[in-house]
Amino acid sequence: MLEEQAFTDGRIFDGTRRLRVLVCVSGGGTNLQAIIDAKEAGKLENAELVRVISNKAGAYALERAEKAGVEGVCVAPKDFPDRAAFHKAFLDAVDEAKPDLIVLAGFLVVLPEEMISRYRNRIINIHPSLIPSFCGTGFYGLKVHEAALSRGVKVTGATVHFVDEGTDTGPIILQKPVMVEEGDTPEILQRRVMEEAEWLLLPRVIELIAEGRVSMDEGKVLIR
Ligand code: GAR
């Protein structure tokens, strides 16, 4: 079990074996696809995708996993009598995969606190804005881009961060800016943020962690 584990030099992973990556999804799974494509292009040599978990049975992300030969598992809240039972089944599905890294790629479920402490600094999330802008409760998917456009920002982007007990409050690992253009709709902006930032950032962060290049230093992320 990886509870509160850290290497003595603060590294998240020491890179001496292949990083076992579990991806959690709720929807279309384009970020999952970006990870699969990076792997197929030979960019994630020191990482293996061990399982994909979806909280929605019909999520297209599960089809993407299947096509890539990655085990896909659905753990849906509606199949359980209450939240506690769902959380237990979800956490069991996570633990079973023995992940070194858990990637939230458009996963819209609030994680059980037990999971956050058990996998401290081993859960990463991708968020489609430059945190701390347009993040926190209620900011997900298109709503983030709607908020950015109604505020009139000229630059937005994406952030990959470690997950802590707050919503989008964990240590920031990498960010990438994206320009807002005249005439952008939330959908157009969402697509540009995905293409220019998210699909590049997420595989890159996984690669950096797999290579043993990411460490924690007094609550902040260091990349060597
Ligand atoms: C992505 O834009 C991701 O950043 C966002 O949901 C989308 C999922 O797309 N996540 C959040 O808003 C989390 N707060 P995908 O299923 O195609 O990867």
Secondary-structure map with pairings?
Blueprint lengths: L18 E7 L4 H11 L6 E8 L5 H8 L4 E3 L8 H14 L4 E4 L8 H6 L4 E5 L14 H10 L3 E8 L9 E8 L6 H25 L3 E4 L2 E4 L1
Parallel strand pairs: 1-2, 1-4, 2-3, 4-5
Antiparallel strand pairs: 5-6, 6-7, 8-9
The site of glycinamide ribonucleotide has 17 residues, from α1, β5 and α6.
Named CATH architecture of the largest domain = 3-Layer(aba) Sandwich
Beta-strand portion reads 15-25%
Radius of gyration computed on alpha carbons? 17 Å
Bound small molecules, by name, code or SMILES, are:
glycinamide ribonucleotide
CATH superfamily of the largest domain: Formyl transferase, N-terminal domain
CATH names the topology of the largest domain as Rossmann fold
CATH class of the largest domain: Alpha Beta
According to DSSP, the number of beta strands is 9
Largest sheet: 7 strands, mixed
Task: Please list the strands of the largest sheet in the order they lie side by side.
Answer: 3-2-1-4-5-6-7
The percent of residues in helical segments reads: 25-40%
Low-confidence stretches: none
Question: Distance between termini?
Answer: 26 Å
Secondary-structure element string:
EHEHEHEHEHEEHEE
- Provide the residue-averaged pLDDT: 95
